[in-house]
Amino acid sequence: MAVIGRRTFLAGVPLGTTAALLRCSRVAAAAPNAPSSVVASSSPRQVLFIWLAGGASQFEMWDPKPGRSTGGPFRAIDTNLPGVRIGELMPKVSQRMDRLTVVRSLSTGISEHGQAADLLSTGRPKEPTVAYPELGVTLAKELSTGRGSLPDYVSIFRTSEGRRRADPGFLGAADMPVHLERSSRPENIERPSDLDAAQFSARAALRERFDRSFLADRTGRTTAEQYAAAQGRVAGMMDSVPLFDVDREPEREQARYGRSPFGRHCLLARRLLEAGVPVVKVARGFWDSHHDNFESHRELVTDYDRVFSALLDDLQERGLLERTLVMVLSEFGRTPKINKDVGRDHYAAAWSCAFAGAGMRRGMVYGKTDADGAEVVEGKMNAGDLAATIFSSVGIDPQKHYQYGVRPIPLAPETANVATALLS
Amino acid sequence: MAEATVMKPKTPEPKPTEPRWNLPASGTLYALAVDGATGCAYVGGSAGTIYACDLNAATPTLRPRMHDDAYVAALEVLRDGPQSGRLVAARYDGSLVWYDRHDGKRLRITTAHDGWIRDLCVVGDGRRLATVGHDMRVKVWEAADGKLVRSFVGHALETPQGYVSAIYAVAGSPDGRYVASADRVGEVRVWDITSGKEAARFRAAEFYTFDGEKRDRSIGGIRRLRFSPDGKRLALAGIGQITNVDGFVGPSRLEVWDWQTGKRAASLQDSHQAVLNDVLWSSDGRKLTAAGGGDGGGVLLVWDAAGKQPEQKLKFKGHAQRLARLDGGSLLLAAGFEGVQAWDERAWSMPASANATKMAS
């Protein structure tokens, strides 16, 4: 495990270099001699981030404990990985476990929704002085080719619970993803009805001319360039509206994903990945099952099983799984204790997440909890470790720095350990 | 029949009430059956253990009697004829198990449903049993030998929005001819055991919440239904429109339907935020006693079935899943979270002043 901290790095940097860094814009590219770290050997170029908002139960999904007082009523079922069992609500996923990596040893400490979502979304607890960018934002920035007219990051978050905008933090608005919240297609990007295509093109050309003129004799042009780039992307998205229309998919494909919104959103995600969007996030809310946990998970996991299995098959058939890291994550898991309302409450001490696709080793269960699922007994990972491992899996050095004012900020916390066993 | 509607009455907050007994058990108890002849109660739930309790004892206690790994969803005592002395358990592993309740021996096991059995009831004079399960089937069984009599299919496997559904409850008519079943989306079907056909169908839509715009969840459902003593009406228990999905927050709700005409006779909704998991008719068919729990805590409500606001609204610790009344008596039992609570119904049927006096003494 290779971890080189910021202080270690700074110790070797002459003062003059530090001063030069200070003169840079608030956010700069990675320090040229950023320390190397462990990265996956076959790095994916795209990421699909599935966010189960509210906190999905590890007991009902990835780490069942049948027969224990904490286990609940569902059984564990065999998978196509010998010796590995998962919750019975995922029969389809169970036959695709050889394409998955399950981490059963997350121990992230924070069990309040907002703070935990901040923690898992960035790999760090929220700080008053620095707004860290969401992982997806950083991944999109790193994985962006800088070419093409599509956005680098599309976040689909239609259900209202725990809805969070993927925050670019100190990276600034230029790295803001496209958020699909009220509709599954970008809003307000249609060409006005009283403007024909020729008129629209003429206006765009005029704006570009003004931009060029404005930028020609100016330094520190970042904002203006970003504005021009944003205009270009909006124009590109206007041309890409059909991409957001899943009804254009053959009926067979639509049926495969099912008619639930989560299914439709995952189908849209596949279309976006296929079109080359580097990072796509699909969020599905209302996993926060303080009451009627088993009814909730029977409903939600059944849908998840159908949709996620269809997604894995589809990505594989199209060759996308070879270049895409798929990660399934919540802000925390659920308590071992079943409460009076047959619910499970928030629990961050021992819970699970899952990965598929490129970058991570496949057909693997990492880490272990005790018999009741109350504590991690093997392979404990905190949020920083998880972030560092995700960055490594996509070939990004987690200790690469962004310069924020006077602070060089590594992508993952300096203390984070990469779980190298997970990397492909 | 004209419908009497009481929506969101401004009833006072529930009064805390101390049970006559509080019998602790681990986990959540979903099943409760009493044998009026012997004064014995049987309960079971998440621990898989079935406990027996002699209600005539000076200090009743729950004693483990039988154990299997799967959750116990429901229990029934077979009282008459050669089956007398047997206890039938419906479990989440889909099995229907006959036990000798005296020595705890397992006498018969039948795989009754593919998936959890959610409810079990005795039909009519006790010669038959009915079950409902996650396979969305309603099945009728001979109590004596476990032979399948009928298997009714009709409840949709999925909600209208494509999510998995569930039949939560089954009830047998007093004359033994009909069984009624109720599901997550509020659909009730009444089945004629004799003809093997559906006798009635209606939808109590207020028990089902779906908000595709924000929440995208199919939740709620009728959690219990019971025929009135004359067999003409059905009482439905559950929760009204849910405003907070995570906390399952919504108003306590009962409805009474004349099932033969398909008309709702009463809507009984209380502002207390809890799901009602069970309901009992009084022997004269005039009152309903319901209990449950949730965001507002455990609650027990006594209503006039004609549709007046709750006559009693009592709060207790925990969350009740199943109610039973000792035949001919006034002892009301509620099984639920971490045990059984028992109340003497006479305590709250007295005038308020007398009640206060009794409580003080």
Write the topology of this structure:
The complex is a heterodimer of chains A (424) and B (361).
Chain A: H1 6-11, H2 15-23, E1 27-28, E2 46-52, E3 76-78, E4 85-87, H3 91-94, E5 100-106, H4 113-122, H5 135-143, E6 153-157, E7 178-180, H6 197-216, H7 222-239, H8 251-257, H9 261-275, E8 279-284, H10 293-317, E9 324-329, E10 333-334, E11 346-347, E12 351-357, E13 364-366, E14 368-369, E15 376-378, H11 383-393, E16 401-404, E17 407-410
Parallel strand pairs in A: 2-8, 2-9, 5-13, 6-7, 6-8
Antiparallel strand pairs in A: 1-16, 3-4, 5-12, 9-12, 10-11, 14-15, 16-17
Helix pairs in contact in A: 4-11, 9-10
Chain B: E1 4-6, E2 15-16, E3 21-35, E4 40-45, E5 49-54, E6 63-67, E7 72-78, E8 86-91, E9 95-100, E10 106-111, E11 117-123, E12 128-133, E13 137-142, E14 148-153, E15 167-172, E16 178-183, E17 187-192, E18 197-203, E19 208-210, E20 218-220, E21 222-227, E22 233-239, E23 251-258, E24 263-273, E25 275-281, E26 287-293, E27 298-304, E28 312-316, E29 320-325, E30 331-344, H1 346-349, H2 352-360
Parallel strand pairs in B: 1-24, 2-28
Antiparallel strand pairs in B: 3-4, 3-30, 4-5, 5-6, 7-8, 8-9, 9-10, 11-12, 12-13, 13-14, 15-16, 16-17, 17-18, 19-20, 21-22, 22-23, 23-24, 25-26, 26-27, 27-28, 29-30
Task: Give structural notes.
The complex is a heterodimer of chains A (424) and B (361). Chain A has 424 residues and is an alpha/beta fold. Among the domains of chain A are: 1-49 and 64-122 and 288-299 and 326-424, no CATH class; 188-244, no CATH class. Chain A has helices spanning 6-11, 15-23, 91-94, 113-122, 135-143, 197-216, 222-239, 251-257, 261-275, 293-317, 383-393; strands at 27-28, 46-52, 76-78, 85-87, 100-106, 153-157, 178-180, 279-284, 324-329, 333-334, 346-347, 351-357, 364-366, 368-369, 376-378, 401-404, 407-410. Chain A has an 8-stranded mixed β-sheet, sandwiched between helices. In chain A, strands 1-16-17 form a 3-stranded antiparallel β-sheet, with no helix packed on it. In chain A, strands 3-4 form a two-stranded antiparallel sheet. In chain A, helix 4 runs parallel beside helix 11 and helix 9 (261-275) packs parallel to helix 10 (293-317). Chain B has one domain (4-360): 7 Propeller (Methylamine Dehydrogenase, Chain H). Chain B has 2 helices and 30 strands. Chain B has helices at residues 346-349, 352-360; strands at residues 4-6, 15-16, 21-35, 40-45, 49-54, 63-67, 72-78, 86-91, 95-100, 106-111, 117-123, 128-133, 137-142, 148-153, 167-172, 178-183, 187-192, 197-203, 208-210, 218-220, 222-227, 233-239, 251-258, 263-273, 275-281, 287-293, 298-304, 312-316, 320-325, 331-344. In chain B, the strands form 7 sheets. In chain B, strands 6-5-4-3-30-29 form a 6-stranded antiparallel β-sheet. In chain B, strands 1-24-23-22-21 form a 5-stranded mixed β-sheet, with no helix packed on it. Chain A binds chain B through residues 54, 67, 69, 72-73, 75, 158-161, 258-262, 284-286, 288-292, 295-296, 298-300, 302-303, 338, 340-343, and chain B through 26-28, 46-47, 69-71, 92-93, 116, 161-164, 166, 212, 214-219, 245-248, 275, 293-295, 298, 318-319, 336-338.
